Amino acid sequence: MLGTDLLEVLRMRGFVVQAPSSQELDITNPESVAGIAVERWGTVDWLINCAAYTAVDKAETEPEQAAALNTLGPAFLAQACALKGIRFLHVSTDFVFDGAGVGPYREEAPTLPLGVYGRTKRDGEEGVLAHAPQSVIVRTAWLYGAHGQCFPKTMIRAWLAGRALRVVGDQIGNPTHTFELARVLAEIVETRLDGGIYHAAGPSAMSWHRLALDALEVFHEVTGVAPHPIAIESIVTADWPTPAQRPANSTLDFSKLAGHGITPMEPVREGLRNFVVRWIETDEAIRSLAEVR
Ligand SMILES: NC(=O)c1ccc[n+]([C@@H]2O[C@H](COP(=O)([O-])OP(=O)(O)OC[C@H]3O[C@@H](n4cnc5c(N)ncnc54)[C@H](OP(=O)(O)O)[C@@H]3O)[C@@H](O)[C@H]2O)c1
Fold this sequence. Notes:
This protein is 43% helix and 12% strand. The protein has 293 residues and is an alpha/beta fold.
C-alpha cells in the first residue's frame, strides 16, 4: 500500500528509484540483502523500507514470521546501509505504544506494545538504530491508500453490498493517507533529515467509527453513489474481540517533523477525497460498481 504510492511520489519529484519486489529482494534473507552491498541495485543514496508483516491479528499465531519481517529484515537492511554509507529510512507504527495515554504521543514516550506485531516492530526500530544510528525511523498510523487493502475500502464495499455496519467507536488514532505519507517521506529525503525517530500521521484524531462515516460520506460526495442512507452502529472494543489487543488511543504528535520544516498532512476529509479519486482511477471493479448504482 505505502510502497506503491511512494514509488509514484518519488518519481514525480524527480528521484531515480528502484523498487524491487519481495521475490527480487527478500529482506528476511541475508544473501538477498547482500545484493545491496554488491550494488545489485546500483549505487544508492537512500534506502526506504516499506516492507513489513502487517497482519496484526495473524501475527499472534505467527510470531516467527512477524519477527523475521519486522525485526530481522530491517536489521539486515540497516547493516547493509551502514556498510555502504547509505541513509536508511525505516517505517514503523503507532502500535509500539499501549495507547493508555491521554494525549498524542511524542517520539520520546516509552514504548509498550500490546501484541506481537507492535513488539516485533519495536524490536525492529531498536535493531535498525543499533546497526545504523543515522537511520530515520518514521512511525505512522492507520494507513489507507488506493493500492492494497485498507479499512475505508472495506467499509465502502460493505456499504455498497448493503451489509449492516458495526464499527468500534472507542479506539482513537490518526488516519493517514499513504500518498500524503509518501510526500512526507520524500520531504524527509530532500531535507536530509538527521537520524532518529519521527512521528508522521494525519492531523485528525478520530475513532474507527468516525472514520467509517467520513469514508462513506466522502465516497458519496465524489461518486454520487448512495445505495441507501449511511448508518453505522458504534460499538465498543469489548463487543468486537480480536486476537490482538489494540491501543485505545495511539495518536501521534507531528510537531517534531513540523519543527524540521516538513509540511503537515492534509485533513482527513481531504485525504479521503484524494484517496477515493485515486482508487476509482486505478481499480476497474470499484469504478464499475460505482457506475452501475
Ligand atoms: N497498514 C497500516 O495501517 C499501518 C499502520 C502503521 C504503520 N504501518 C507500517 O507502514 C509500512 C507499510 O505498510 P503497508 O500497509 O503499506 O504494508 P503492506 O501493504 O502490507 O505491504 C507490505 C509489503 O511487504 C512486502 N514483503 C513481504 N514480505 C517481504 C519480504 N520477505 N521481503 C521483501 N518484501 C516483503 C510485501 O510484498 P509481497 O506482496 O510481494 O509479499 C508487501 O508489498 C509498514 O512498515 C507497516 O508496519 C502500517
